[in-house]
Structures are given as structure tokens and as C-alpha cells.
Amino acid sequence: MFRAYSGVETRVDELKIGKAARSKAGEEVLRRFVEEAKKTAPDLSGSDKAPQYLEWLATEVSSSGKRIVAGTAHLRQAAWYIALLCKEKLIRGRANVTEEGRRLNVAMHWPREREGQILRESR
User: Fold this and answer.
1) DSSP SS3 for 66
2) pLDDT (0 to 100) of residue 92
3) DSSP string over 14-39
4) Under-70 pLDDT residues of the chain
5) Could you state, in order of their start, the residue ranges of all structural domains in the chain?
6) Quick check: helix, strand or coil at residue 49?
7) How far apart are CA 109 and CA 49, in angstroms?
8) Cα-Cα-Cα-Cα dihedral sign, residues 88, 96, 62, 6
9) Distances (CA, A) of 48 to 16, 32, 76, 84
10) What pLDDT, on a 0 to 100 scale, did the predictor assign at position 39?
11) How far apart are CA 56 and CA 43, in angstroms?
12) Please, which residues have CB within 8 angstroms of residue 98's CB and are 6 or more apart in sequence?
């Protein structure tokens, strides 16, 4: 199975069939996805991020222990997460490819302190 990033195809590992057809994507696929999201991330410097963060928190983003957790299969949504939550603070991610659409499903994590920074910087 392959996935294209910026016109370059990358191997995404073989699809394994069991109770559910899925496969873990390799680190290279994850790295390319995150790099592509960073390139397309909007510039939110100088804007109040708190209202946007609170909207994402109500629908897409959650807190788990000492981390903020956000998951997506869409590059544009990952780019917004990175712009909002800071690309330098990305701790880790993982990706799975499912038979349902065969898309990456990336889970990204940031330190929980980032939430406090966003809310303190609010106007």
C-alpha cells in the first residue's frame, strides 16, 4: 500500500487482515504527514487563539492527564492543530491505515501546559 505526499509515493506497510483490516503506518509516513501539515499550517501569530481552542476543545480536542490529544485523518485539520497548539511542542503521533478509506489516522499530543498558555494570552 502506498501514499503520496507532495507528489512522492511512500510505502505505508502491508494491510493485515484479521477481525478488522488495518495496518500501522511507518514512521516515515507519519513524519511526511506532519511535515506537510506544518508547511500548510496557517499563521496565527498575533491572533487570539483562545476562542478557536475552546471551539476545538468542545468538539475535536481532548485532554488526557498531562497531555492535549488531537486526532485526525485530514491534513488540513492537522495543519490547524499545529498552528493552534504549536509545532515545536508536538510530542508524538501514530498512524493507522484502515480498509475504510485507507487514510492515515494521526494522533498528536502536546503538553497540557500549552492550554494554559493559550488561555493566558487571550485578550
Assistant:
1) coil
2) 64
3) --B-SSS-EEEPPHHHHHHHHHHHHH
4) 1-26, 88-103, 123
5) 2-120
6) coil
7) 18
8) positive
9) 44, 29, 20, 10
10) 92
11) 17
12) 20, 21, 22, 105
CB 1 within 8 A of CB 14: yes
Sign of the four-CA dihedral 27, 33, 36, 40: negative
Q: Give every CB contact of residue 19 below 8 A, 6+ residues apart in sequence.
A: none
Alpha helices (H) along 1-123: 27-40, 50-59, 75-85, 113-120
CA distance 79 to 37: 4
Q: What span, in angstroms and rounded, lies between the C-alpha atoms of 94 and 73?
A: 11
pLDDT score, position 40: 93
pLDDT at 33: 83
Question: What does pTM read for this prediction?
Answer: 0.71
Dihedral sign for Cα 32, 80, 88, 45, please. positive
Residue 122, pLDDT score: 82
